[in-house]
C-alpha cells in the first residue's frame, strides 16, 4: 500500500467508530491499521447525480465532492460552488507579463544603465535614425510575453487551486471509484467532514437512491 | 461494443449528414455510451500495436535518420552545403520553417477558436490536431535554429546578461519571431498537456500493468474528476482558448513580417499577415485531414470522427482556400495598380519566369483543386478528401517556395540575378522533417489518448442534465426526435 502522511495518521487517531455493517451487505471489520477515508455512492445517470449533489449541499456537508468522467455543466449550481478566482490569477499574470515585456524591450534597446554591472546594462541601438523606443516596433514582443505569462499563470493556477499534483489519493484504493474517470458518477463524503458519521452518512447516502455505496479505507503500512 | 447492424449504420449516416437546420446532428454514432467510448479509446493504447503501425514507424524512423545524417553533415561542413547563394539567401530553410509553422495553426484553430465559437464537433479531433501542432512546431524550429550557422550559439537569440554587453535588436521581425514561435510552442504544449490531464487519469485507472499505472498516474497529476476540479479546469481551458486565439493569429502575422518588412518586390505587401494566416489554416486543415483519414481507419474511429467531421473540415478548407486564392489575385492587382516597375516585374516573373512551373503547381493545388469541395459527394468521400488534402499540402509548400525564391532570385539589379537549386542536404532535411513529424505522431497515437475522451463525453446525451439552467448546453438538442438521438440510456 502507499505511503502514509501525517494528516491521515491524525484522523485515524480521532477514533471514528467502526461500522457494524457496511453498505451492500458486505460485512466489514476495520483492523487497527485501517481507517475510513470516505463513503462513496455511485449514481446511475446525471440527473440523479445532480439531485444527490443538491441534497448533499443542503445537508451542510463541507468535505464532500462529486466526481464524474466529464464536466457536467450546471453541477456548480447543484453543488453550490462559488465561481473560481482563477480568471483573476490569469489577469495578474498577464499584466505582469505585459510590464515585464515592456520594460525588457525598453531596457535592452533604449536605455543604457551606467549604474549597474556591465552585463546588465542595456544597449542604445540607433537604427536608421528611428526613435530608440516606440510601441509599434515592440508590440509583438510585449504581446508574446503577456500571453506566455498568462498561459503559465492559468495552468499553474488551475493545478494549484485543484491541489495537483496529488501523487497519493486513498480514494483510488477503491476499484469502484477508479471508474470515476471512465463512466462512473460518484458522490464522495470524506471522513474528515465534521458531520461525518459512518452510520448516519451511510443512511443519508442510501436515501439518495444510489446504485451502490462503498466505504473506502486506507491502510497504514507495517513499519 | 455497440452492435452495428447495417440498418443502424444507414440510420446513423442519415442523421449524421442531415442538412435539416432544425436539428443538430449527433456527434457520436453507433449507439455508444460512456463505457464503450472509454474502452474504444483506451484500447488503442493498451492493445498491441498493429502491423501497419510498425511499418509506418519503420518508414518514419528511416526518414528521421536521414534528418540526423543531414544535420550532422551540415554541422560538420557549415551551412554552405545548402543551395542558398548570395542572391537567394533564404531557401529551403525559411520555406520549410513557414510550411511547418503554418501546419501547426490548424491545431490551435481547432482547439481554441472553434472552442470559443462553441463548435462542439471539434471535440473528437482537437487532441490529435493539437498534437500535430506541437510536432509541426518542433519540425519548424529545426530550420531557423540551424540556419544561424553556429548552432551552439543559439542562446544569443535570447536577451540574457552577458560580458559583451550585447543585446538583441528588438526592432527586427526576426527577433519578434523568436518570441512568437517560442511562446507559441510553449503555450500549445501547456494547452495540450492540460487537456490531457483528465484523460491520463482515465488511462491510469484503466491500466493493468504497474508501470503503466505509475507513468499515467504521474502524468495525470492525481486527477480524480471532481466537479470542483472540473469547474477550474473548464475555466482554465476557456482562458487558454481566449489567449491562444490572438496568439495563433499573431504568430503567422509575425512570420509574414519577416517578408513584409523587407523592401524586396513581391514581399513588401500589407496583405501578408491575413494572407499568411488564412494560408496557414488552409494548409493546417489539409494536414489534419491527411492524418485523420488514415488514423480513423487504422483505429476504427469512424463513429467518433464521422463523415460530418470530415465534411466540416472540408468546408473550412474551402473557405480559407478561397481566401488564399483571392490573396493571390490581389497581389497581382496591387502590383499592376501600384505602377511600380520592380513590383510589376516581380509578379510577371513569378507567373512567366523560370519558376513559373512552381507557380502553376501552387495555383492548381491551392486554388483549383479545393474548388471540387463545393460538390457534396466529393467532400463526404474520404478518398477524394484525402487526395485533395495531399494536393493542398503540396500546394502550400510550393506557395512558400514561390514567395521566397521567385521574389529573391530576380530583384532590383539584373547583374545579381541567380537561380536557386536545392542540394541533397536541403532535400534530406526536408524529407527528414517529415520523418520526425510522423515518428512523433505515430508514438503519440500509440501511447497518449488520441481522442479527448472527457471532452467527447460532454457532447454525448449521457452528459446532459434534463433540468436546471444548463440543460440546453449539450448536443443533440433536447427536442431532437428520438430516431435522431444516439446513445440511449446510461448503462
Number of strands of chain B: 0
User: What is the 3D form of chain B?
Assistant: globular
Separate helix tally of chain B: 16
Largest sheet of chain A: 4 strands, antiparallel
Biggest interchain interface, per-side counts? A-B, 75 and 81 residues
For the record, give the distance between the C-alpha atoms at the N and C termini of chain B, rounded to a whole number: 12 Å
Order of helices and strands of chain A: HEHEHHHEHE
String of helices and strands of chain B: HHHHHHHHHHHHHHHH
Brief characterization of the structure:
Chain A has 223 residues and is of the alpha+beta class. Chain A has six helices and four strands.
Characteristic key phrases:
heterodimer, A: alpha+beta, B: 491 residues, 16 helices, 66% helix, globular, disordered C terminus
How are the SSEs placed, and which strands pair?
The complex is a heterodimer of chains A (223) and B (491).
Chain A (H helix, E strand, L loop, with lengths): L5 H7 L21 E10 L2 H13 L5 E4 L7 H5 L6 H25 L24 H27 L23 E6 L7 H9 L5 E8 L4
Antiparallel strand pairs in A: 1-3, 1-4, 2-3
Helix pairs in contact in A: 4-5
Chain B lengths: L5 H11 L17 H13 L4 H27 L14 H25 L9 H22 L25 H34 L3 H11 L6 H34 L11 H27 L8 H32 L2 H12 L3 H13 L7 H4 L2 H28 L14 H24 L5 H6 L33
Helix pairs in contact in B: 3-15, 4-5, 4-8, 4-9, 4-14, 5-6, 5-15, 6-7, 6-8, 8-9, 9-10, 9-14, 10-11, 11-12, 12-14
Amino acid at each position: 500500500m502507499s505511503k502514509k502522511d501525517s494528516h491521515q495518521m491524525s484522523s485515524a487517531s480521532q477514533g471514528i467508530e467502526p461500522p457494524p455493517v457496511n453498505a451492500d451487505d458486505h460485512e466489514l471489520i476495520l483492523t487497527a491499521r485501517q481507517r475510513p477515508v470516505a463513503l462513496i455512492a455511485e449514481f446511475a445517470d446525471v440527473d440523479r447525480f445532480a439531485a444527490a449533489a443538491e441534497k448533499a449541499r443542503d445537508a451542510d456537508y463541507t468535505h464532500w465532492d462529486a466526481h464524474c468522467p466529464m464536466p457536467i455543466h450546471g453541477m456548480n449550481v447543484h453543488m453550490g460552488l462559488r465561481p473560481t478566482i482563477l480568471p483573476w490569477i490569469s489577469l495578474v499574470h498577464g499584466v505582469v507579463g505585459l510590464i515585464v515585456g515592456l520594460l525588457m524591450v525598453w531596457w535592452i534597446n533604449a536605455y543604457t544603465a551606467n549604474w549597474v554591472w556591465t552585463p546588465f546594462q542595456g544597449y542604445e541601438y540607433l537604427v536608421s535614425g528611428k526613435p530608440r523606443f516606440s510601441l509599434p516596433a515592440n508590440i509583438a514582443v510585449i504581446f508574446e510575453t503577456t500571453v506566455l505569462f498568462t498561459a503559465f499563470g492559468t495552468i499553474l493556477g488551475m493545478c494549484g487551486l485543484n491541489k495537483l499534483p496529488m501523487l497519493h489519493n486513498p480514494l483510488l484504493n477503491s476499484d469502484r471509484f477508479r471508474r470515476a474517470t471512465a463512466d462512473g458518477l460518484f458522490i464522495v463524503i470524506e471522513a474528515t467532514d465534521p458531520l461525518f458519521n459512518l452510520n448516519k452518512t451511510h443512511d443519508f447516502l442510501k436515501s439518495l437512491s444510489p446504485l451502490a455505496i462503498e466505504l473506502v479505507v486506507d491502510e497504514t503500512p507495517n513499519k | 461494443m455497440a452492435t452495428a447492424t447495417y440498418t443502424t449504420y444507414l440510420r446513423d449516416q442519415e442523421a449524421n449528414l442531415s442538412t435539416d437546420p432544425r436539428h443538430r446532428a449527433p456527434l457520436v454514432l453507433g449507439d455508444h455510451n460512456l463505457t464503450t467510448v472509454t474502452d474504444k479509446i483506451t484500447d488503442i493504447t493498451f492493445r498491441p500495436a498493429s502491423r501497419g503501425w510498425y511499418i509506418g514507424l519503420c518508414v518514419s524512423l528511416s526518414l528521421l535518420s536521414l534528418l540526423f545524417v543531414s544535420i550532422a553533415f551540415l554541422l560538420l561542413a557549415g551551412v554552405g552545403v545548402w543551395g542558398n547563394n548570395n542572391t537567394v539567401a533564404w531557401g529551403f530553410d525559411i520555406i520549410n520553417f513557414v510550411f511547418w509553422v503554418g501546419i501547426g495553426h490548424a491545431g490551435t484553430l481547432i482547439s481554441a477558436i472553434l472552442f470559443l465559437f462553441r463548435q462542439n464537433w471539434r471535440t473528437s479531433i482537437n487532441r490529435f490536431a493539437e498534437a500535430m501542432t506541437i510536432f509541426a512546431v518542433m519540425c519548424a524550429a529545426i530550420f531557423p535554429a540551424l540556419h544561424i550557422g553556429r548552432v551552439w550559439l543559439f542562446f544569443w537569440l535570447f536577451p540574457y546578461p552577458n560580458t559583451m554587453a550585447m543585446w538583441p535588436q528588438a526592432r527586427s521581425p526576426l527577433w519578434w519571431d523568436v518570441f512568437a514561435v517560442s511562446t507559441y510552442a510553449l503555450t500549445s504544449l501547456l494547452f495540450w498537456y492540460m487537456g490531457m490531464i483528465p484523460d491520463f487519469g482515465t488511462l491510469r485507472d484503466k491500466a493493468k500493468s504497474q508501470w503503466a499505472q505509475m507513468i499515467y498516474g504521474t502524468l495525470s497529476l492525481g486527477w480524480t474528476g471532481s466537479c470542483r476540479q472540473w469547474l477550474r479546469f473548464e475555466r482554465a481551458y476557456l482562458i487558454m482558448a481566449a489567449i491562444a486565439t490572438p496568439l495563433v493569429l499573431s504568430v503567422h502575422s509575425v512570420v509574414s513580417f519577416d517578408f513584409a518588412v523587407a523592401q524586396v518586390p513581391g514581399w513588401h505587401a500589407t496583405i501578408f499577415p491575413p494572407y499568411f494566416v488564412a494560408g496557414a489554416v488552409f494548409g493546417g486543415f489539409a494536414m489534419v485531414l491527411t492524418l485523420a483519414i488514415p488514423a480513423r481507419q487504422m483505429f476504427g474511429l469512424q463513429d467518433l470522427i464521422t463523415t460530418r467531421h470530415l465534411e466540416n473540415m472540408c468546408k473550412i478548407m474551402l473557405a480559407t482556400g478561397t481566401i488564399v486564392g483571392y490573396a493571390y489575385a490581389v497581389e497581382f492587382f496591387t502590383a499592376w495598380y501600384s505602377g511600380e516597375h520592380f513590383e510589376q516585374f516581380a509578379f510577371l516573373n513569378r507567373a512567366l519566369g523560370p519558376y513559373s512551373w512552381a507557380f502553376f503547381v501552387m495555383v492548381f493545388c491551392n486554388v483549383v483543386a479545393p474548388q471540387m469541395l463545393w460538390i457534396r459527394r466529393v467532400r463526404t468521400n474520404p478518398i477524394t478528401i484525402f487526395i485533395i488534402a495531399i494536393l493542398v499540402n503540396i500546394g502550400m509548400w510550393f506557395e512558400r517556395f514561390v514567395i521566397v525564391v521567385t521574389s529573391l532570385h530576380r530583384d532590383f539589379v539584373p547583374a545579381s540575378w541567380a537561380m536557386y537549386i536545392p542540394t541533397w542536404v536541403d532535400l534530406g532535411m526536408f524529407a527528414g522533417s517529415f520523418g520526425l513529424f510522423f515518428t512523433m505522431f505515430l508514438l503519440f497515437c500509440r501511447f497518449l489518448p488520441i481522442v479527448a475522451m472527457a471532452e467527447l463525453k460532454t457532447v454525448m446525451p449521457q452528459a446532459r442534465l434534463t433540468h436546471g439552467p444548463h440543460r440546453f448546453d449539450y448536443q443533440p438538442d433536447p427536442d431532437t426526435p428520438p430516431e435522431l438521438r444516439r446513445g440511449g440510456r446510461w448503462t
